[in-house]
């Protein structure tokens, strides 16, 4: 087996035994990336940095000072600031931006010895569910329908495509409304969104600050546990970073979930949901029951209001965060005409630099925050958000350990098909995932089966706040029971 | 709730995004459609509910009010489209 196909856990064990070197592992990934231009997953390659980091990792391994992530080659979503390496959030407005600093999450990974292969494609400013809002053009799903190219999902579509195609052992992602979990489900990979505040947001280009959270995208649940342990930290530079020690998540994978209570929320049975998704959900329920868990029907009554709430709060925060792109401090500045003043500079810079979806969200956010509408939209949405969170609080207070739902309302669909529908229709992709961001909970998507067309389908597990360990343990049980081993047939 | 072309123009101005006159009708209709979607929120009884400000009840961290870094003007200006003599340069603001 070529080395790029290894999991983090296997690679770690073989690196520590001296059976392989980090340089060999990195070279295998760089060669795979070289051959995978058709996937458009990697948009900035950092082969020189990767080889240097791999050599340093080998030295650490030889010295016996090797954390779990030491020598593990990763892809980094373009949203993470990486010092001296292009970081443009897949936007034209940040073209040429070379950060003078490193995000805390990537710094933590590098301190643990991880290797950066390059930057990964995504939707512009993480706004999108198909990767099609990217200035680089869309990343392509390694899974296909015949000759038809599919979306890898979004916004972390490049991360998901790269992991599914074995271009890297794992990747970083970020999740504001489902941007880690939906692409994981579309590509047959594992994606974990941690509890809000678990991974520092410092140095990650901000979209919606009360919803954004970074996490690992991996091939297995164990790998997600290992990588989260390295990404997470208590960070004084992020005022919302939680003052909680980072536990050993891998040690939480006991495989024993006997007596645990699994909540099945009836509101997640949505109109028009394909029978295959419902069947997959039932299979997941049966697997957890067979493992000794107790299945409990629960109600999360405000679920139906999660999408409109999200599409008020997300754009409101985005309009505020994206005000910084004004053509003054970094990135693109429009060419000024004769007599143009500073307002024309701002307006033309932002019209040229932001794509259509980003402009749409900034304007809707501006509207809901404007005088006269603030109470009717923004404040009301914040109140409904409190009710959505209360639904979860009450379920957990009643003894529920983990909640099981489908990850997405469909399998991956062809690229180009969402252009024809209106934005609201596109937002329905996030129906099962946004509630989690609004409530700040940890959640994980994992592959659980193939649909009749041979495409991967995912299930989502939602955990108690700060119980990533318990969540990962449930996921590992489900992963073993589902026995998902399918890989996309190589065409790229 | 629907947004007129005049309101759409005002929103674009507030957001500092140039929108051509001929693009205003489409923008107004798109924004109206999204607001209709959000109007569902008016069905929810939010009497006595406090607006949520954060997912965990925690007080924002505080630190001593002291200088923690600085003296990095070069790094701060490095990515500027137009920087001169240690400053960001912009078109004339005051007539």
Automatic annotation (TrEMBL), chain A:
Alphabetically ordered keywords of this record: ATP-binding, Ligase, Nucleotide-binding, Protein biosynthesis, Transferase
GO BP terms: translation
Q: Name one GO molecular function term.
A: ATP binding
Keyword ATP-binding applies:
yes
Which stretches make up the Amidase domain? 24-472
Instruction: Give an example GO cellular component term for this record.
Output: glutamyl-tRNA(Gln) amidotransferase complex
Residue ranges the record marks as coiled coil:
none
Q: Where is the active site?
A: 77 (charge relay system), 155 (charge relay system), 179 (acyl-ester intermediate)
Q: Which SUPFAM superfamilies match?
A: Amidase signature (AS) enzymes
Q: Does the keyword DNA-binding apply?
A: no
The reactions it catalyses are: L-glutamyl-tRNA(Gln) + L-glutamine + ATP + H2O = L-glutaminyl-tRNA(Gln) + L-glutamate + ADP + phosphate + H(+)
EC numbers on record? 6.3.5.7
Q: What does this protein do?
A: Allows the formation of correctly charged Gln-tRNA(Gln) through the transamidation of misacylated Glu-tRNA(Gln) in organisms which lack glutaminyl-tRNA synthetase. The reaction takes place in the presence of glutamine and ATP through an activated gamma-phospho-Glu-tRNA(Gln).
The protein's assembly and partners: Heterotrimer of A, B and C subunits.
**Record HAMAP family:** GatA
Q: Which family does it belong to?
A: Belongs to the amidase family. GatA subfamily.
Protein's name in the database: Glutamyl-tRNA(Gln) amidotransferase subunit A
Q: Which organism is it from?
A: Paracoccus solventivorans
UniProtKB/TrEMBL annotation, chain B:
As recorded in UniProt, its EC number(s) are: 6.3.5.-
User: Gene3D superfamilies annotated for this entry?
Assistant: Glu-tRNAGln amidotransferase C subunit, N-terminal domain
The record's top EC class is ligase
Q: Which UniProt keywords apply?
A: ATP-binding, Ligase, Nucleotide-binding, Protein biosynthesis, Transferase
InterPro entries (alphabetical)? Asp/Glu-ADT_sf_sub_c, GatC
One Pfam family per UniProt:
GatC
Catalysed transformations (reactions): L-aspartyl-tRNA(Asn) + L-glutamine + ATP + H2O = L-asparaginyl-tRNA(Asn) + L-glutamate + ADP + phosphate + 2 H(+); L-glutamyl-tRNA(Gln) + L-glutamine + ATP + H2O = L-glutaminyl-tRNA(Gln) + L-glutamate + ADP + phosphate + H(+)
| SUPFAM superfamilies found in the cross-reference section | Glu-tRNAGln amidotransferase C subunit
HAMAP family reported for this sequence: GatC
Fetch the PANTHER family from UniProt.
Answer: GLUTAMYL-TRNA(GLN) AMIDOTRANSFERASE SUBUNIT C, MITOCHONDRIAL (PTHR15004:SF0)
Q: How does it assemble?
A: Heterotrimer of A, B and C subunits.
Function comment: Allows the formation of correctly charged Asn-tRNA(Asn) or Gln-tRNA(Gln) through the transamidation of misacylated Asp-tRNA(Asn) or Glu-tRNA(Gln) in organisms which lack either or both of asparaginyl-tRNA or glutaminyl-tRNA synthetases. The reaction takes place in the presence of glutamine and ATP through an activated phospho-Asp-tRNA(Asn) or phospho-Glu-tRNA(Gln).
Q: Supply the name of the protein.
A: Aspartyl/glutamyl-tRNA(Asn/Gln) amidotransferase subunit C
Gene name linked to the record: gatC
